[in-house]
Design brief:
By secondary structure, this protein is α+β, with helices and mostly antiparallel strands. 39% of the residues lie in helices and 16% in strands. Helix 2 links the parallel strand 1 and strand 2.
Length: 370
Amino acid sequence: MKIKDMPDFNRKESHFHMQNMIDGFLTYFQDRSCIKHDPVKISSGIDPSVRFIGSHISVLKPYFLNDSIPAGGYVMSQPCIRTRNLKNYENDDFYPNWGSYFPSLGILTKPERLEDITKQTYSFIQEQWNIDPHDIKIRISARDADLMDLAHSMFKSEMFEIDTMQPKYYRHKLGIDGVWGRNFNLALRDYGKNTFSDIGNVIILENQDKQLGIEIALGSSTVLKQIYGLNHVMDCHPVLGLDKYIQNPNIRVKMEDTIVTSIALYNDGLEPSNKGNTNRLMKKYLEIMKACADKTNLPKEVLRKTLHQYELLEYGSNKGEYTQKIMDFICPTSQNQKSNTEVIENQQKQTGESSSNSIIFTLTQNKLSR
């Protein structure tokens, strides 16, 4: 469904909006000869240069390194976690501009398809996301003559921001010696303002000898934030009700992020421990969640309800398995050894058998990585 045909954004139904965006992206490019590539677990370890998969390109690296990109290229959505904010999460004055977890939207295709795939992406943004060119900026470096030529052939001059960023902004590191990316960025207008925020890149992947591939990278949560004028990317996830109990936005956003990320990692099959890097990082997210709850005196029953509701809305699980694990970690007392039956029954009394539940359970048939 095109964005313009979607109902107004409602955070409780944000999973529906996110899944619609993902499905629309995959379908559009599959209809234009791309092959859909399956996602992998975030903690799969298939890319030794990262602890968690932080981009679809980690999954697609073998194809451009081995010169085995299919004629139409690959398109995929990959669940990702980037932990760069975690080192600052113990600082109450730190406000994270981005969340840790997000589904990445990506394409990898052959170098000779640079113009073709860029035009398709631009058309997709206008047709499917209903974005007016007036609300798009092309952030590009004059040093990249080939990208400049391409951009000038496609975009109006008023859309350009040339060399307004540091040189490293226009370069991509891939964790591979002797391989890098040169990019220009796509930015969308901040809702009702004259400022813009990045939502993706067009990237030439290359080494010193030749171009290896073309990558399109788009961030689904940043796109939703820009289109609907949301305050923060965390509003793209159905973590509901914490604003009633946590007044400090710095702590509330961190709390929401730790909930989304921790449950994503439980869903990935990971457990918190001190045994490995990924397990330790997961444990750190849970420790930050506990610290946020303690600092704000968040009632345990509120936390349990918030976790369980998120688990239901995002993953379609009414069992509360991940909720129970988190509660056992945060407050390992006898009161948390009980099942989630009481919470489930209370929520059902409050919500009834509403139509939104049927929508949620329908959507979960298309989950990204289960």
